[in-house]
Design a protein that fits this description.
The chain is of the alpha+beta class. It has two domains: 75 residues; 241 residues, Deoxyribonuclease I, Chain A, CATH 3.60.10. The protein contains nine helices and twelve strands. The chain has a six-stranded mixed sheet, with no helix packed on it. A six-stranded mixed sheet has the order 5-6-7-8-10-9, covered by helices on one side. Strand 6 and strand 7 form a beta hairpin. The protein is globular. The termini are far apart. The model has no long low-confidence stretch (mean pLDDT 91).
Amino acid sequence: MNLLPTTHISKFLSAFLLCCSFLLMALPWLGKWSATLELLAISGFFVLAADIVMLLWHSAFRQRLFILVDSAALLLALFPVVVHIPFGTGKAGSDDTSSLTVVSWNVDNFSLNRSCLEELAYVMQTAEPDIICVQERPHQHLMSKASITSCFPDYPYVAFNNREDEVLNLMVLSKYPLSDVKTVYFPKSYNKYMSADVDIDGKKLHLYNVHLQTTSVSDNASSSLVGKLNLVIDNAEKRNQQADRLSDDINSSNSDNIIVCGDFNSPLFSYSCQKVASGLNDASWKSPLLLFKSSYTKSSILPKIDHIFYKGGVGCDEYGLIEGSWTDHKMQKAVFTVY
């Protein structure tokens, strides 16, 4: 069978994918314009897959010019992913190390149910974490702090955000001492992040528990496609501003050892994720889960929106997503070596 030569359509697709791949790579530098490209960021891994398909297609027909175009597109699309590959801490071989297991989970208010709280607490503790970062803790009037902490008797150090919002509160439970606990509240939003210094056997670590702007298209958007798209863009703009604030905080930290975890509500390709993760390693490189979904949604194209990043004298040995039907998110677990 004689194969047809590459068509004008395939050539157009190569050029189109080159533009998309370039925009994905350039998102961290596009500032406020990046919000209008949020749908492209959500589709980032599909662009990456399409680049590979077009490269294989033109390679089959030995179209050298378009092999170069497709290769360039693939490299550009790969940049936001590979830039966070961990290459070690530079302190390997040190005898003075400590193991640290961190769990991060959006618990969806424990469904405001005591049984659900107890079940989620059990699941979290079976992972044997040293630190638990919780997003979407219930309001104090709906489920008291005391009732929550009573389910975590092995965690003597507990920090809550210091202002009780109606929704989207945060909590950190730790087996290690916490100090200098701070909460940053984003304007015109219930979203926020906490930071704290952790003393791990005399080694200092700066921890961030993050919950960036939620889009909630299915709950809040109008029925029209334009209304949904506008909501995606509006919330992306808020999320990008929040990421700028968080990134400034991380960059001004006095600690060399940093872990940032939580619900980013955005994929790795997005401006907000790339901004926060700039100069940090992605823990999910320690597993095949880099491309997997971390939330339970009706959309099949939504990639992983929960992340754990780190840098400094911290090395990631293991990363995983724990399945379950208790909330609309999977639980993140990462095992670190602190030098």
